[in-house]
Amino acid sequence: MSDPVEVEPLVVDGQALTIRVCRGSRSAIVAVEGESDSASAHRLGRELRALCAQYTLVVVDCLGLRFLGSTGLTVVLDAHLHAKARGNVLRLVVSTPAVLAVLRVSRMDQDLEVFGTMNDALTT
After folding, report:
1. Which domain holds residue 27?
2. pTM confidence score
3. From 25's CA, which of 1, 51, 59, 116 has a CA 20 to 30 Å away?
């Protein structure tokens, strides 16, 4: 993996969403920190779609994500479908109880590839 590239943090009403990307030859790791709500989710979606078009594997590290709203969930699902249509893979690393609850209640944990650790996401 190369050195991380940080996308300019988006601050909305005092809440920030930070996206950091490490790019390799065939895969990318996207570290997301903060809150993904309706104000910040579209930027996350643009980043994920672009990466899913370019890399065979995109792993989204959600360990620093404190909140995933419905719009954020929608853009992650859209990126997953975008990757899948190209024969690529999007995986999530999630351990935050609030984010896990959103995935379970929406049943997106059944559609998305969700892992508890980065090691599991990268070696599966």
Report:
1. 8-94+103-123
2. 0.87
3. 116
* 3 within domain boundaries: no
The vertex-79 CA angle with 37 and 71, nearest 5°, equals 20
28 found inside a domain: yes
State the Cα–Cα distance between residues 52 and 90, nearest whole angstrom: 7
d(CA 97, CA 15): 19
Contact 40, 73 (CB under 8 A): no
DSSP 111: T
Q: How many independent structural domains does the chain possess?
A: 1
Q: What is the pLDDT of residues 14-45, one digit of tens each?
A: 457 888 888 888 999 999 988 887 778 888 89
In CATH, what number is assigned to the domain containing residue 53?
3.30.750.24
